[in-house]
C-alpha cells in the first residue's frame, strides 16, 4: 500500500490529484507524498532552481499556473514546500495546506532546532530526523483532503449532552499535577473536552491548527494501544520553538476509541501525569462515563427537520468575552447522496469553491447562491458566523432562505450540545507569574534533544 | 509525591533501545500479546506494565528515530536492564547501538544488565522460521558460513560484511553474526568499566530472536526477568524508597562499579 515505492516515471504517478514536496534550501529532498524522495531528487533540484532563480532577482516565486495544474511554493525558513495540484483549489487554499505540512514538521522538531540545524550545516539531510514520520505527514495530507476542519480552521467537537460533557470536564479538572497545561479527551477522533491551565492561556489561545496536528499525530500512531505514550511535541501556533511533553493513553482498550491526552511542560513528569490518568480512569469508571461516550454519535441532517437540506457547515465567530474560545464548527454526517468517497470529495470541492469566493482577496462576497449540476449551494458570512449549506437541486431561492432561518434556529437551540461553550480551566502552576506561554522555561530543552550533537 | 503511591507500582524497569525498524515494538508485542502485527513507527516512548508473578515490571519501548534521541536518557534513568536491539540483517543497526544508544544508558542503574538482541532471525536462520514459542537455547546456533571469516576480526568499528545493506529490504542476508554481538557486548562492559569476569557472560546476554515467529522471544524476556530479580527484591526491601524510579538517587549513582553477579 505504500506510496513510497511508486514508480515516479509512471503515468499513474503524474495523475495524482495533489502532490506535496518538501525540500531544503540546498535542494535536498525531505518529503514527497508519492514516490521516494531519492527518485525525485532531480525534480526537487529543479524546484529549488526555480525558487533561487526568482530569488536572485529580489523576488519570490509564489505560484505557476499551467494546463490543469497549479504549482504553489511556500518558503518557511530553511524549508521550501511545493504543492502541485490538479484540483480546482485556489492558490490561497493550497498555500494554507502547505502551511499545515510545515507546522506538522515543526510539531515534531520545533522551528528553533530546524533553524539551528541548517545554520550549522546547510546541506543537512533532514530526513534523518524525520525518518519514521512520513506516515504522520501522509496522514495529515489525507485529512486535509477529506476533513473540512482544515479548510475552516476550526475544530469540530463531538456532539454531547452538556451535562455529560461538564461531568467529564470536571473529572479532568480534578486530576492535576504541577506543570500540567492541557487535558484533552478525544473520542472517535473528535474533541470531547479540553481543560486548560489558567495562566497559560491568559495571553495565548489554543489554535485549532494545533489541535488538528495533535489529532493527526494520535491517529497516525495508534498502533500501541496498550501502552502509555510519553513524547515531546511542539504546538507550533502556540509556541513554535518549545516542546510540550504529551502523555497519550487510550481509556478503552482494546476498542481504543477514547483517548486521553495530557500535556505537561515538565519532561520528567511522566509518572505524575500517568497518575492523573489513573484518577481520571477511576472517576470515569465510577460515573460510567465510558459507556455513555460509546453511545454518542455524530448527528444526521434529518434532525434539523428541513426537507431540502442535504448538508451544512456552520462556524460561529466567538464572542469577545473573558473566555478564550476555541474556534469551532459543526456539521452533520455526510449522508446519501454523499456516501461514497468520490461524492464526499465532490461536495467538499464545492464547499472549497464557495469558500474561495467568500474569502477571495480581490472580491470577497457575503452571500452566494450557487446552482451546481447536481445540487444547489448557499454560503453566507456575517459578523457572527460563516455558513455553508447544500440543498437538493430543485430548491428555490426563497425556500433556501427559509430553510436557513430554520437551520439557524435549530443550531441555537442545540448549541450546548454541538459546541464546547466555555472551555473549563484549572490552575496547576503554584507560581503563575513565570510560566505563561507554557514552554518558555523549556526553551533550552530543544538543544537537549540531541540535535546539536548531530552536527 | 503522594499521588504516585496509588499507582500500581512497578518494581523494576526495563528499557528497549535500538535503531528504528529493528523491531522493538514487535518484540514486546509478541511477548505481551503473543502476536505479530504491523506496527507504525513509535513516537517518543511507550510505557507498559507487565505482571510477572508477584512483581510488576515496567517496560519502556522507545522510539528508534533520531528525532527522539534526546529523550533516551530519560527513559533509561534508573533502569535495571537495557535491551539493546538490532536487526541481524542490517549491519548498521548494530553499529548504531554503539554510536548512538550506548551513551544513553549512562543514566541506568549502576548494576544495570545489558542484553544484546538480534531480531528478525527468521530472515536468516531456518530454525527461527518455524512458528514456535521459543525453547532452544541460543548458544548452539549455526551461522551462515560465508560471512563468518570477515567478521571475526573485530575492531571498535568494523566494516560491514560484503553483502550490501538492502534499503528496500528485499533480500536481506545475515549481516551480523552472534560473534559480532558478543564482541560488542565485551566493548559495552569495557565502556561501563565492568570486569568481564565479574559480569554476566556474553553467551548468556546475547540473543537472536524473531518477533515474527516468536523464536526465542519468551526466552529473552524471562531470562532478563530472572536476572533482574535481585534488583526487584532489593527495591521491594528498601522500605522507604519508591520503587518507581527514584530520580534523585539514580542521578547521583556513579557508574563504573562492577556488577554483583
TrEMBL record, chain A:
Domain spans labelled FUZ/MON1/HPS1 first Longin: 18-140
Residues in coiled coil: none
Organism superkingdom: Eukaryota
Gene Ontology cellular component list: Mon1-Ccz1 complex
Region (Disordered), start-end ranges: 423-455
Pfam families recorded: Fuz_longin_1, Fuz_longin_2, Fuz_longin_3
Domain FUZ/MON1/HPS1 second Longin: 179-280
Family under the similarity heading: Belongs to the MON1/SAND family.
Full protein name: Vacuolar fusion protein MON1 homolog
Organism: Champsocephalus gunnari (Mackerel icefish)
TrEMBL record, chain B:
GO cellular component, one term: phagocytic vesicle membrane
InterPro entries: P-loop_NTPase (IPR027417), Rab20 (IPR041836), Small_GTP-bd (IPR005225), Small_GTPase (IPR001806)
BP-aspect Gene Ontology terms: protein transport
GO MF term set: G protein activity; GTP binding; metal ion binding
EC number: 3.6.5.2
Catalysed reaction equations from the record: GTP + H2O = GDP + phosphate + H(+)
Stated name of the protein: Ras-related protein Rab-20
